[in-house]
Design a protein that fits this description.
With 400 residues, the protein is of the alpha+beta class. The protein is built from 16 helices and ten strands. The protein has one domain: Cytochrome p450 (Orthogonal Bundle).
């Protein structure tokens, strides 16, 4: 049976939700040959499998590549894999538990609380400048600069360091490897970004060893039980995970609001009362990370389909967040939705450590734009980036 899943099609990327509805209606697990993955479209299954320890983000803690029936990555890709494989996102078992515990000592709720005034100041400055210019590209002028600046402040990257301006390009090149079947050119750019970013962070870590500050890198050094590679990988993950979803939620969210004028009008009339539920609904309605992958470490069964060890499952977050079995009227944007257990930030041991910071940034930027640009309107129809996994528009031109 043909599977209605076309992640390289611009039309599918622009609106995957009708295809998701068809996937949910026709089964709980679908084999997709082009990526050799099992697609899992239902909320209950996605939520359960995120917590199921028979699956993992990696398999190398239990098997060699040969034992698992997989081919080792090319040697030329090693700098990317060294960086990626030592970060929380791709660790399992004891290493994940150890590093998450240690990182949590530095990245505490108080750390996020202490960033609130910084986030609000940065958002206010960016939006004020954007409004003064009469609008422009919301992506390049507000959505991207805010989370990157926040992460830079949090890590203690000095404003005078020229590398500060390279954080976003480095992150974009590294995250290209999380798309489906990345090309060799994508891998080359990811390797180069991994080398450059790692070298810069090692130099910055050395500076902080000699002159500690009030930043996260200094706090990670003080933990003492993390290796330098683990610190580097943690910092890169915080940048990548800490801003890609925030950027796309901001821009996709405004694109959604501008296509739902009644909901936008309600939000504008009561931003203080509706903003928190509105942010959660925008995270659900057009999920910035559409898919999360897991390796099957021991045989599992989904909807009567046995998925054997060595397989890979693709957990379709975007589909799960529109599942009518979990959400009332899931294809309706309801900014006052109070019962909203979306899985945009994941679940289980890999639940997003930076979720509170993302919510803080989103609330600040949406709030500032609602207050300072009450007549914000679309100036041109946006185009979608080709990437499906990390899904967003290439620009959002608006007038204020």
């Amino acid at each position: 049976m043909d599977v209605p899943f076309e992640p390289w099609s611009p039309d599918f990327v622009a609106d995957p939700y009708p295809a998701y509805a068809e996937l949910r209606a026709t089964g709980r697990a679908h084999w997709y040959g082009p990526t050799r993955q099992w697609l899992i479209p239902h909320y209950a299954d996605v939520s359960a499998l995120l917590r199921d320890r028979r699956l993992g983000r990696t398999y190398t803690h239990r098997f060699t590549h040969e034992e698992f029936g997989r081919t080792a990555p090319p040697a030329a890709h090693e700098p990317f894999h060294t960086l990626n494989d030592h970060g929380l996102l791709d660790l399992e078992a004891a290493d994940h538990t150890r590093i998450r515990r240690l990182v949590s000592k530095a990245f505490t709720p108080r750390t996020v609380e202490n960033l609130a005034s910084t986030v609000e100041r940065l958002a206010a400055d960016l939006v004020a400048g954007f409004v003064a210019r009469g609008g422009g590209d919301l992506l390049a002028e507000v959505a991207e600069p805010l989370p990157v600046a926040v992460i830079a402040e949090m890590l203690g990257i000095p404003e005078e360091d020229e590398e500060r301006g390279r954080l976003r390009p480095w992150s974009s090149d590294i995250c290209g490897m999380f798309e489906l079947n990345p090309s060799e050119e994508t891998a080359r750019r990811a390797v180069q970004a991994s080398l450059e970013f790692s070298a810069y962070l090692r130099e910055l870590i050395e500076r902080r060893r000699k002159e500690p500050g009030e930043d996260l890198i200094s706090s990670l050094i003080a933990v003492e039980e993390l290796t330098e590679q683990e610190m580097v990988s943690t910092c890169v993950l915080l940048l990548n995970a800490g801003h890609e979803a925030t950027v796309n939620t901001t821009v996709n969210g405004w694109w959604t609001l501008l296509r739902h004028p009644e909901q936008l009008a309600a939000l504008r009339s009561d931003p203080d009362g509706m903003l928190s539920t509105a942010v959660e609904e925008l995270l659900r309605f057009d999920t910035p990370l559409q898919m999360f992958e897991r390796w099957v470490l021991d045989d599992i069964e989904v909807g009567g389909v046995v998925i054997p060890r060595g397989s890979e499952v693709a957990l379709l977050f975007g589909s799960a967040n529109r599942d009518p079995a979990r959400f009332a009227s899931p294809d309706v944007l309801d900014l006052s939705r109070t019962e909203n257990p979306h899985i945009t930030f994941g679940a289980g041991i890999h639940y997003c450590l930076g979720a509170p910071l993302a919510r803080l940034e989103l609330t600040a930027s949406f709030g500032e734009l609602l207050r300072r640009a009450p007549r914000l309107r679309l100036a041109a129809e946006p185009r979608w980036n080709p990437g499906y996994v990390i899904r967003g528009v290439s620009e959002l031109l608006v007038e204020v």
